[in-house]
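Hello Y.,

Per our agreement to keep a running log of every chain we model this quarter, I'm adding this entry. I've kept the format consistent with earlier entries: sequence first, then predicted structure.
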Amino acid sequence: MNDQPARRRRAPAMSPEDRREAIAEATLPLLVEHGINVTTSQIAEAAGIAEGTVFRVFKDKHELLGYCVHTALRVEPLLEALQAIPRTSDLEALLRAAADAMGDHFRRSGALMHALAASGWRPERPSPDEEQQWHQRRLEQARLTTQAVADLLAPEADRLRVAPRTVAGMFLGLVFTDQMGRRAFGETAPASTDELIDVFLHGVLAR
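Predicted structure for the entry above:
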C-alpha cells in the first residue's frame, strides 16, 4: 500500500489562441454591462486568471476589445444553431426556430455594439484593404446564413412559391429589420415572432 499523497496533475496549458477565446468569452458580458469602462482586473476575475495573463495574449486593452467585437460578430454559432433545428414539415415551426436563433444572435451583437458606442469606444479607422476584407467577410457571413436557412426549408420546397434560397433571403432580411431597424425608427414594441411569421407566410391583408 502506498501512503504517499497522490500528486495533483496540472491541467494542460491552453494555446495562446484558446486563451484568447476564453478571455473574450468572459469579457463579452462585462462589456455589455460596463462598456469600455470594464477593468482588466474585472476581466481577469471573470476569466479565472491572473491579470498579467490578459497582457500575455493581448497587446493592450484596445486589442482585447477589438477581438471581442470580432468574436461577437462571428456567424459560426448562429450557423450551428440553425443546423441543430429539428427538421419538420411544420413550416411555421421551422421559421419560428430560425427566427429565434437569428434574433438571439442579432440581440447579443447589437447589445455589445450599443454598450461600446454609448461608453465612447471608437474603433480604429481601417485601411482600404482592411475595410474591403471586412465587407467581403460580412457578405460571406450573410451568404452562409441564407444558405443555412435555405437548407432548413429545402425539404418543403414543393410547398413554396419560390426557391428555398429566395425565401431564406427574404426571411433573413425581415428578421434583421424587425430586430434592428424598427427600433431605429422609434418603435418600442417589435412584432412578436408569431406575428412576424404569420405576416411572412400569409401577408398583411385580413383573411
